[in-house]
Design goal:
The protein is of the alpha+beta class. The chain is 36% helix and 26% strand. The protein has a single domain, classed as Alpha-Beta Plaits (2-Layer Sandwich), CATH 3.30.70.100. A 4-stranded antiparallel β-sheet has the order 2-3-1-4. The model has no long low-confidence stretch (mean pLDDT 97).
């Protein structure tokens, strides 16, 4: 299992839209997340800063992410969510963070 922490920044005017979308995530998006071996997926917000955490339990992360990216429902979801990000024009969304401590 591999843990991920990620950071992103939203455009201030899109914070409420992003929260509203995630209060009712589409079931097919959740199914794709599970199919692509992501578990314990959480997103936190403080102001415009987002922190995401998930665990990858598969054996080929790149292939699973390619599968997610190819999914038509996920692509439609991203058409709603990606414009909310501050660096959308540069195609920058979540950035991986370095894990410096973990305790079970």
């Amino acid at each position: 299992m591999r843990r991920f922490g990620q950071h992103a920044v939203l455009k201030p005017e899109f914070v409420e839209k992003y929260k509203k979308l995630h209060n009712a995530v589409w079931p097919d998006v959740l199914a794709t997340i599970a199919k692509c071996n992501l578990k314990n997926y959480s997103i936190y917000i403080m102001g415009t800063d987002l922190f995401a955490y998930f665990e990858y339990v598969g054996s080929n992360y790149d292939a699973d992410m390619a599968c997610m990216e190819a999914d038509p429902v996920t692509q439609e979801w991203w058409r709603h969510t990606k414009p909310c990000f501050a660096l959308h024009d540069e195609k920058v969304y979540y950035s991986d963070m370095e894990e410096i401590f973990h305790s079970d």
